[in-house]
Amino acid sequence: MPEINFVLPHWLYWGALLLFPIIAMAMVRREQQRPKRHGPSLFVAYMFWLTAGFLGLHRIYLRSIWAAIFLPVVIAILYFNGIDRNYREDVSRSRAAHETAVVKLHRIEPSPGVTLSPEATGRVTAAREAEATTKADFQTAEDKLKSNGRIVSGLAILLGVMLLIDAFLLPGLVRRVRAREAAAGPPPPELMPPDVTTIGTGEDPTRRVHTRLTDALDGLSNRVGEFVAYWAVLSVFAYYYEVVARYFLNSPTNWVHESMFLMFGMQYMLSGAYGYKEDQHVRVDVLYSQFSVRGKAIADIITSVFFFIFIGTMLWTGWRFASDAINVGEVSFTEWAVQYWPVKLTIPIGAGLLLLQGTSKLIKDIIIVTRARA
């Protein structure tokens, strides 16, 4: 099976983090403006084809029985790839044994014209036989590895041809499924599960208070939260690539895991203001939920002192971390060597967003208290 040595370029990583959410948000807005359509979506079908087509999930999505032909090919590829790893170990072991035998033979091989004793002649003969045997074993192991590689390559080509054929057939398949579902009548109404709020969340009364300033600050938190939420979709593509590269191409990476845990760390920092705005930070308390609306607002005003002290500290220290990383051009210690300053820069940015969202909440708490007093 051919191997790949692709390493994600740094510019592509940072570019995807910036551009993919913008494109995804535009596509979602466009889809929301369209009238709701029943039946399978061609876009979703192609997404299944792109991300899990080798398993035939695009066919399963379209309720096609031909999805069953993909799984045996995938199982066969995984099986022969497992054998391939064993053969690689055999090649490595037999190569080492042959090299050892060659070195040993070279050491005791007599010079031309030198007469050996019977014991020395026996040792040379045994060394020559060992060299010939290990060479034959090495050649056999290499032949098995190449033969198995041809089988896996053939299966991979077959799977690729099947996917290319389906890439052209998908539009027609989607149209036929839509026509079949339309002839069967309207679908039953969707049953939406009840919206259950997690205990300790959704209790903030300021969510129902609106002013021009607080709405602007809340809108900023909403947009940033939505932006970084689409990064989770990128992780699907990244880990999909890792699975295919590792188990189908015998080419595991060292950059997928690093790129994703850095991305999720940045997502955590930048989405904190959105979680605070939506009151999705779990509270561990026994008193707050028993307070009245005005009592909750008063409690939040009092405890906001500690909030702003913490956020101010995080903003200052986070900026120092980020500025130091920028000044020295800090990169990761792995072979990928990605820049660290954008990652550390999300610490003060996230703290700044939390500061703005905390200010919005404080304003709304004050409004609740003053209105209740009036």
Could you give the topology of this structure?
Blueprint: H1 10-33, H2 42-52, H3 57-61, H4 70-108, H5 118-183, H6 212-229, H7 231-247, H8 256-270, H9 272-277, H10 293-328, H11 341-373
Commentary on this structure:
With 374 residues, the chain is mainly alpha-helical. The chain has two domains: 40-183; 205-373, no CATH class. It is 72% helix and 0% strand. It is built from eleven helices and no strands. α1 crosses α6. The longest helix has 66 residues, at 118-183. The model has no long low-confidence stretch (mean pLDDT 86).
Order of helices and strands: HHHHHHHHHHH
Largest sheet, in brief, is: none
**Proportion of residues in helical segments:** over 70%
Number of helices: 11
Q: How many β-strands, per DSSP?
A: 0
Detail the poorly predicted runs. none
How would you state the average pLDDT, rounded? 86
Large-scale geometry: flat
Distance between the termini: 77 Å
SSE class = mainly alpha
Radius of gyration: 32 Å
Number of domains: 2
Percentage of residues in strands = under 5%
